[in-house]
Amino acid sequence: MTLLEGSVGVEDLVLLEPLEQESLLKNLQLRYEKKEIYTYIGNVLVSVNPYQQLPIYGPDFIDKYRDYTFYELKPHIFAVANVAYQSLRFRDQDQCVLITGESGAGKTEASKLVMSYVAAVCGKGEQVNSVKEQLLQSNPVLEAFGNAKTIRNNNSSRFGKYMDIEFDFKGSPLGGVITNYLLEKSRVVKQLKGERNFHIFYQLLAGADAQLLKALKLERDTSGYAYLNGEVSRVDGMDDASNFKAMQSAMTVIGFSEEEMRWVLEVTALVLKLGNVELSNECQANGIPASGICDERGIREIGEIAGLNSEELERALCSRTMETAKEKVVTALNAVQAQYARDALAKNIYSRLFNWIVNRINESIKVGTGERKKVMGVLDIYGFEILEDNSFEQFVINYCNEKLQQVFIEITLKEEQEEYKREGIPWEKVDYFDNGTICNLIEHNQRGILAMLDEECLRPGVVSDSTFLAKLNQLYSKHSYYESKVTQNTQRQYDHTMGLSCFRICHYAGKVTYNVNSFIDKNNDLLFRDLSQAMWKARHPLLQSLFPEGDPKQASRKRPPTAGAQFKSSVAILMKNLYSKNPNYIRCIKPNEHQQRGQFSWELVATQAQYLGLLENVRVRRAGYAFRQVYGPFLERFRLLSRSTWPRWNGGDREGVEKILGELSVSSKEVTFGKTKIFIKSPKTLFYLEEQRRLRIQQLATLIQKMYRGWRCRTHYQQMRKSQILISSWFRGNRQKKRYGKIRASVLLIQAFVRGWKARKDYRKYFRSGATLTLTNFIYKSMAQKFLLRLKNNLPSTNVLDKKWPAAPYKCFNTANRELQQLFYQWKCKKFRDQLSPKQVEILREKLCASELFKGKKAAYPQSVPIPFRGDYVGLQGNPKLQKLKNRQEGSVLVAETVKKVNRSNGKTSSRILLLTKEHVILADTKKSQAQIVIGLESVTGVSVSPFKDGLFGLHLSEISSVGSKGDFLLVSEHVVELLTRMHRAVLDTTQRQLPISVTEQFSVRFKESDVTVKVIQGPQSHEKGKLSCKKKGSRGLEVTVP
């Protein structure tokens, strides 16, 4: 690596002297105090959180690090992001950026910087910019719903996030996929002292306007909500109101509709109000303890938001239904149990809402399956946590960090040594801590702690946290990384910090004591079936979709997987994903516990440096080689540096690499040849090779430019020469053609004069011979004049229906007479159209549409021609109930009339009010004037109508629509021509498609059970006083007799 002048301390710890823990920490402290927060360990970046905004992330820095190689400038996160992006783009290698460290070390900000750099350097274009904006705007939304203030961090991620950004072959982003891990949903109902709930609750109360708060039935004061920590309602440096606006704007950019955003806020408000539902002890008549709701207003408002009966919700909260194979038993819950059910419901609603938001973002940024993609993954996951009271959440969080450390150990340390051994290169062994034993202690399929926890949850009989701890003590009594009060007593050790309900694991980051209280409940993560079914019955679309298991049709007695099993599976998939990509490491360090700028806590940083393995990493890099690559790609990249290998090399890859380095006089101490790879000791040598390659590319580019310019000039000269010859030949030919033309014209003129003189001389005595032609022309013109004057005085009326026209007096004028007749008729039509108002034009268009649909097909059509379409046949304006029904639908009502609906089972008819709007067909009860059926026009697939004078028609619906699943409709209308004409136009305007209207005596309709063939026959004129009658013909036939 080239050392920059004026650098602070050592920029790459590989060059540190002496190599000790003390000197490493001193170097980090020196650079941190000078605001140099980034330091390299080879290609690993160490980042110390400055707790302030530094002016090192602007567009100038992005352009600077884009144009230089990794070791050419100061250490920076942009350099790591640039290496990952360039490797993905030019070397076609999938990348992942692993950002690890404690909570509060700056992992979330580091992931944002990586994404912003990639977005700035990749391709541009309207579609590309839209994708980049959606990827970047996912951060404010996920932070609002997934981050919270903790004791250690004001913006701590309380969930794990892994984002795969997918690129095309040009390096332009196509989209991405976000995977979330284990949201800390227990924070919804309880927070430690000095901590807050998730940001969205405070942002909603602070940033929503008064109208929105009223609609959500919320008050702005945070102290009025049991789920919010009133002591810490605000955070220094964080504006909840502006963050709420930014979150809404981000959701809009991502593609959330206004309706979806409203749904999300309503569910969020519902969770807040659940916390205010107070439950008290009651007693049933038989003396069994029960519970009840203290304040009916709160439960009623929750029911209004969710579209749920408040009594049904109260019953689900205060009782539990136990279902066996033979019977159902309803058990009343006491106040403590009911409060547990309430909190479980709140946690489940919020957790499922968060998963829905992640899936909705994925829908907007997903990439089509057909495109070939390159992938860059960015991992931002919760850091290692050691709290005063560590529970199940800290256990699985630390397990995930243990697995990430294992990835780092295996890839950065273990594989480093093993690779040198495979390549046959001498290596000074570096001892390192392998945490595989700890991972195995937690995740072993049969004997791991998670497996024991699942076994205890599934075991019949009395199960508690104490029995779980007893099983662990029995199983791991001699395990070197497990401790508890029982194991200490066995070894005659005394530790007053170890509680009776606790166990301790010696993690790579230090010893952590876990309290087993609530381990069983949190792992079970059970929600009573009554609550799931109650939520599924809610009329709120989003809330109902969050609880599919509440659907009685999908009810299952199968026990869902435990929270621990789900998280273990997710971590296994994450590890597989990370192993399949080329890793880039960013190790984040928290300099102090108080989030103060400029403070450097020696003990805290030393602890983090120890469990991050920084010193071991330096030793490995120092004892080994900074760069290695397979001979083939290395030769392909650097073969242009040697005349022997450029432009072609016919020998082996290793011989070619040796030839290149030999001609460049690279020291043998800097290079070692393995069995399949070339190893370069110091980055300085690699930078030298890259610099020589850059200069050589410039030389080759200059050579190519020279050859191209020479070829272009020669080609241009040849084209100019050919053009000059062609122009000269055309000019000379054109000049001769003009001269020849003038001579020929002169000769023809002389000849004409001579022939004229001779003709006049020979036929002078016959000068009156042309009088006949003159007279004929005069007579014809006189006849034409008289014809036109007569036509002018006898023009027909300007009525467009009057098609009279005088006949031509002579046959020679027939053609002209027909043309004049056509012109006059067109003029009359234009004049008629100019006089029409827009309303009259619309009426004529409707009549024209009716003519196209029914003329010559429907016997009732001729009667409808002279009658204008009224639309309203039920007195819509004078009927308040119908007016209220109309106001519920968007758009104006096109047709309102009373129709008869044919019953599907017996063929009888019943009256209904039919309203046709621009988007819906509504069937309402004639007595109550309430909408019974609302059919979207996009669900109407066709209409079948008989050719007779009756008003029977079949309305065919799509099977996939909610109304269409019940079957088609058979209706009778007295104004069927008007109704179907306006429906045809409304479908065309709304869906941009033609509505198929079939005029036939026999057609098929789809009822819920099966298809039914409707046959229309014409009866005698006296048939039941002209009424329509329906008669069932078997199970699949219906005969309709019309007058």
TrEMBL record:
SUPFAM superfamilies: P-loop containing nucleoside triphosphate hydrolases. Residues 1024-1043 are annotated as: Disordered. Keywords: Actin-binding, ATP-binding, Calmodulin-binding, Motor protein, Myosin, Nucleotide-binding, Phosphoprotein, Repeat. GO terms for molecular function: actin filament binding; ATP binding; calmodulin binding; microfilament motor activity. InterPro entries: IQ_motif_EF-hand-BS (IPR000048), Kinesin_motor_dom_sf (IPR036961), Myosin_head_motor_dom-like (IPR001609), Myosin_TH1 (IPR010926), MYSc_Myo1 (IPR036072), P-loop_NTPase (IPR027417). Belongs to the TRAFAC class myosin-kinesin ATPase superfamily. Myosin family. This is Unconventional myosin-Ia. Residues 858-1042 form the TH1 domain. Residues 571-593 are annotated as: Actin-binding. ATP binds at G101, E102, S103, G104, A105, G106, K107, T108.
